[in-house]
Write a structure and sequence with these properties.
- The protein is of the alpha+beta class.
- Helices cover 39% and strands 25% of the residues.
- The chain contains five helices and six strands.
- The chain has helices at residues 2-12, 31-36, 40-65, 109-122, 138-146; strands at residues 70-76, 79-88, 92-100, 128-134, 150-151, 160-166.
- It has a six-stranded mixed β-sheet, sandwiched between helices.
């Protein structure tokens, strides 16, 4: 997972992370006046810091839930365009997380990845490919349905859905 951590951070980081937000209280104790003085670089640095923190928390959570998962950086023409966290057993492959940079969406990259994951899952004889997705992500639900995934309503929670694809042999 260390390679993915490094690659993803390098791909997403455009500004050094800081733990101290810029500005603060002005002499009269008015935070709003100070916040107005934020520059674009300050906002970008705060955003990158927040994203890095969220990413570290997500990686730590996945490591506990899926200790055997493979962490992969998706490259296109030698440049990172996304990441894939895949948990595989002999009976099933489970896409824990798939994220693509916005510029690569709707260009066939997701389809290529999912077809490759399904093919790789069939090789050891897995019967099922599954994945979670946010219940509010209707675009993703339509995308996976076009690939043949079924929405497993019995596994749904208020925030997430589970979709499965039977891997025919």
């Amino acid at each position: 997972m260390a390679r993915m951590d490094t690659d993803i951070r390098d791909a997403l980081r455009t500004h050094p992370q800081t733990t101290d937000p810029p500005g603060g209280l002005n002499s009269s104790g008015d935070l709003r006046a100070s916040a107005v003085k934020l520059q674009r670089a300050d906002i970008a640095r705060l955003t990158c810091g927040s994203l890095a923190q969220q990413y570290r928390a997500q990686v730590a959570g996945y490591a506990v839930q899926y200790p055997q998962a493979q962490s992969l950086v998706i490259l296109r023409d030698g440049s990172p365009v996304g990441r894939l966290l895949l948990d595989r057993t002999a009976a099933q492959s489970h896409v824990v997380d798939l994220a693509l940079l916005p510029g690569t969406r709707n260009a066939g990259v997701g389809r290529e990845i999912m077809e490759a994951v399904a093919t790789a899952g069939r090789e050891p004889g897995a019967e099922m490919l599954s994945l979670p997705l946010a219940a509010s992500n209707e675009d993703a639900m339509r995308f996976y349905a076009r690939l043949g995934f079924l929405d497993i309503a019995g596994d749904a929670t208020p925030s997430h859905r589970r979709m499965e694809l039977a891997l025919a042999r």
